[in-house]
Batch of 4 targets.
Target 1
Amino acid sequence: MNIAVIGAGYVGLVTGACFAELGNHVTCIDVNTQKIANLKQGILPIYEPGLDAMVITNMQQGRLHFATSLTELDAQASVIFIAVGTPSDKDGSADIKYVLEAARNIGAYITQDCVIVDKSTVPVGMADQVENIIKQELAKRSLNVSFNVVSNPEFLREGAAIEDFMRPDRVIIGLSSDNAKALMLDLYLPILRSPERIYFMNVKDAEMTKYAANAMLATRISFMNEMSVLCERMGVDIENVRIGIGSDSRIGPAALNAGCGYGGSCFPKDVRALVKMAEKHGVTPVMLNAVEQRNASQKLLLSERMTHLFGEDLTGIVVGVWGLSFKPGTDDMRESPAIVLIEEVIKRGARVQAYDPAAMPVARETLPDQWFRSGQLALAEHQYGALQDVDALALITEWKPFCYPDIAAMKNLMRKPIILDGRNQYDPRQIRDAGFEYYGIGR
């Protein structure tokens, strides 16, 4: 099948590469000329395990191509995916300008019947707007082209995106056309082998499903984080509580880990966007507001622990940080708890030495240059380099290399043996028996 994917960011690149891996002819399109030039050289704009090899292999096999415009395609695609970003606008709602621009470009380009697929996370009703814009552009060209707009939200976890795409637990497709249904079945049956896990519904239902899924996961995380605060006050171990309630078949164990807050490109912006949608329709989003408030508070826990240990003035204190990305398996630092911690301790006079297996280049590009120039923030070349003469270590991201560290080496390197475990990764008894002060989340 001939497929075009508008947007060569995280979702677009994974979608394009995986469909090419299945034998389709795919062109990923992005207006960022430097990004496209790099991709043609096999240089990816993101870190995602296994994606670079898949992109390069399919480029070499002639199945995956990159372009800056739809007009560069050899032939019109029968399926055009919209996979552009929808970041938070100033008021918290989803910024849809890139989706609207993609729709205008599609309307100015298509000449024959096709299916337009919204892969981006978009507000409910966006498909209708996309359809109207394309019709307007076609009218300007006096063309009568039959097309259908489909909602096919992505559920890709950063760090496991290829696995999620190739072996999804479900595929959600919103549409109103039998022709579009047949085409989408052709696309996804090679992955699922059976249509039983492809859920067809109305377009608006599919658009809402994406937001509701992310909001539910964010709610579970914030609920457990709130329980962790209560557990710590009452001498209860949240980890045992997590196991106890996760064993209930009505609840299940997923997304029940207490920690120092969620971040990333999806949960924060999607919860905010759903809040704005609710308010726009006269609904007070009591639970969603609470989810956001708890997450904001949770991101401050480790810095509050620092001031409890060392006082409000952290001048002269050196803090080691393990993990900068919002989760392991990605270099994505968007809304990472690490940023909040670093900012809070630096403004109180501390110095920070940080290490992350993947996110160091992103940190150098996105964190304030003043922090580096002033010496308040240094990025270590090795995880143990971040521990040299520190007064405390804060674990933010549970990367595998941090799971079983050399405890003896850590104790020799650190000025004070204090560990703040933001992900409850370590056994408190073992760490304390090794001579460390240990502080977890709700433990």
Target 2
Amino acid sequence: MKVVIVGTGYVGLVTGTCFSEVGMDVTCVDIDQKKIENLHKGILPIYEPGLDELVKRNTTKKRLHFSTSLKESVQGAEVVFIAVGTPPDEDGSADLKYVLGVASSIGEHMQHPLVIVTKSTVPVSTAEKVRKAVQEQLSKRNSKLEFYVASNPEFLKEGAAIDDFMKPDRIVVGVDRPEAEELMRKLYKPFLMNGHPIFFMDIPSAEMTKYAANAMLATKISFMNDIANLCEIMGADVNMVRKGIGSDARIGTKFIYPGVGYGGSCFPKDVKALIKTAKENKYTMQILNAVENVNETQKEILFNKVKSHFNNNLKGKKFALWGLSFKPKTDDMREAPSLVIIEKLLNEGASVVAYDPVAMHEAERILGTSITYSNDMYDVLNEADALLIVTEWPEFRVPDFNEISKRLKNKILFDGRNIFDRNEMKKLGYGYYCIGIKTN
């Protein structure tokens, strides 16, 4: 089967590579010529564990190709996936100009029947807009070619995307024609052989499923952060509370870890888009408005602890940061809490030196020379007034505390991810602050 993926960002590259891994002939298309040139050289635009190895293997076997020409790539294809970005507009709605631009190009260049699938996260009714954009181009050509639209939202976790695609919890496909369902079932057959479920549904339901899933996960995070803040006020231990509620199978243990708020490419954008969609339809998403408000406040909580400890005077202070990406195992800094914390520290006249295992280049692209960077997790501590842990990378979990003590000016640690034990830190003589536990 010949498959075309338009867009070589996170979703497009992972999707295309995984399809090629099961033997399909895949061409990933992007208008960014430099990105395509780099992919031909094996240089990936994103960091994702295991992806570089899969890309190399499948390009070598000539199952995975990269091109800037949609016109050439679409010839002979059976299915074309639209996997371009849907960045938020200023009002929070998803910007569909890239999705609809690709749809128009497909309509302009297709020469045989196709199934056109939106893989990008898009609001309900986008498939109809895609259908209209394709049809407009076919009408201009006086072409009566048949085509079918489908929705196939992605559920990839950054840092675990390969496993998520190859061993999915579920595959959701929205269709409105049996021809599209037949082809999509054929496409995903290799992934269903081990019992992974596929759900066919109407297109609006598939589009809504993606937003609902991300909104639910964001809600769990904000709920737990809200509880953590109350625990701290009341003298309860949020880690104990988390264990107490997580043992209930109806709640579960995932996404109930308190911290400094969620970030990334999906949760913030999708929550905003769902709120906006509801507003456009004269409905208010009361819970999601609260989820978003809690999250924005939570991103400031570590900074507020720092400011309070230093008696509201941070001018001239130097702070070390461990972790810049919004979560471990990715270099993605979109909506990362670290950006809020850094901005607030700098605005107070403090300086920041930061370390992250993989996000240093991305941080430098975003922040430039406004902060200092170190390639060593201990060098970053030299003469710093305190250490802030912002991302829970595994290598931070069991550090050399003697080394930390020697390097820091003050034994002060602000743990934004609750990775250390409060009592142990006190025994070691640290001034220790975390989330949801009354400490100092």
Target 3
Amino acid sequence: MKAVAWSFFGVRKASAYAEDVARINPIHVIVAGVLAAVVFVLGLVLLIRWVVGSGVAQ
């Protein structure tokens, strides 16, 4: 999950990337990436609903 989180920010040292590639199962990365994307989108939706519902956008 840590490797996926770093990839969302786009910041990763080359040595850490090489270690992750050698150590992590690709299926785990795919599942973690999909879960992280779902959480990110849900967070944005909740934030937008909160802003619109609070009357700040008026």
Target 4
Amino acid sequence: MVQGTSSGAGKSLITAGLCRIYARRGLRVLPFKAQNMSNNAAVTACGGEIGRAQALQARAAGVEARVEMNPVLLKPLADTRSEVVVLGRRDPRLTSLSWTERKPALWQVIRQSLATLRADADLVIIEGAGSPAEINLPDVVNMRVAREADAPVLLVADIDRGGAFAHLYGTWALLPGTDRERIRGFILNKFRGDAALLAPAPAILYERTGVPTLGVVPHLRLDLPEEDAASLPDRGARGEIEIAAVRLPHLANFDDLDPLAAEPDVAVRWTDRPDALERARAIVLPGTRNTTDDLRWLWESGMGAAIRARAAAGVPVVGLCGGYQMLGTFVADPLGLEGGGTVPGLALLETSTELAAGKTTRQVRGRWRSRSAPFAGLAGRDAAGYEIHHGLTRLGPGAECLLEVEGEPAGAVAGRVWGCYLHGIFGDDALRAAWLAALRSAAPPALRWNAHLEGELDRLAVAVEGALDMDAVDRMTGAWAVSS
């Protein structure tokens, strides 16, 4: 099990690296995280939602993502309210309960999911959440899971932020003795510089805890999805094309923009300031877990007026999922799913949306329909992605259908403004190339996104394997015994 001294320590990527390492050795590896809090979700083949990090870890392991890999997903709706997704589906009853009331039911789901994965794998690599030393909270995701699986624990600290040795020692010291004994190694993550300068701190830490430091992982710049919007960086080189991505309060599925940021001449800049849109070559409104609240925020913050002004000046504007809904004339919430009422949209597309009780979560294949530039060359081609949304968007006479899914419009375009429901759409190399070509004066070599993503996972695995004492890790996991 990989635990961390805090959120953002790097648990998710260390876990993904270990998944790729052991999968390349021929083991059947499955990732697991009991409970995740993130609006950055993926959709499995059965249409269930799980955390984006677990989908990436599954990819690193070379297996298909399953809902058991992340049986509980909390999707924040507001500061004190979250949607509870259990085994990939929203659970209205548990969503309405307090954390202490829902805990017993969730633990049974967690136990069963873990048992299911363990029965189907040579090795399950478990990721914790937050810190195991959050002594104010009842634990169903860190040491309780480690005890259930009888798993040794690697504890990760982010040394780039400072205080890593205090974080490691303090976490260890706050745990009860039986849980301390499960910590079998410390990992210092995101290190810049000469690791020799860390001495004698690891030795002092060992003297006080009996836990060795098993590795110092360098600070890696990788084009891999971030799990939390709180740590979302600007991405990409400072090149010819600067794309402004709107940092919505309930931002979700922000890794949709990763394929753009990986292009050699594209910079994706996350912003919530109207003045930052002035220099952008294009603007993207990403997904959100609360469309109506974030649409109100667009108007109150001045971002809505600024986006409309830039669109009027000819700047392309793109909306993905909730962002697509915002581009229309209004979003209605008659059932009060997101607070109720009708909120005026940006009116950049002649579309309208009504939120409905049913939630669409599915992997889909559609077909491009628009014959307008820059999509004319795509007309008739397949489009693939996944959907996570409430509601239905209707197209008016002034909006051309961009693409269809099962015979119904799933996107619209009008001039240089377009949007769609499909997440992952910028991973379509042809679509991305066509759209960027309209923004470029000269096109660089085309990027193949899926191959690039696989290469980044390989880079991660090589870095983690080179940084850690893998003999010690192998002994903990029993990987030698399994592979032999």
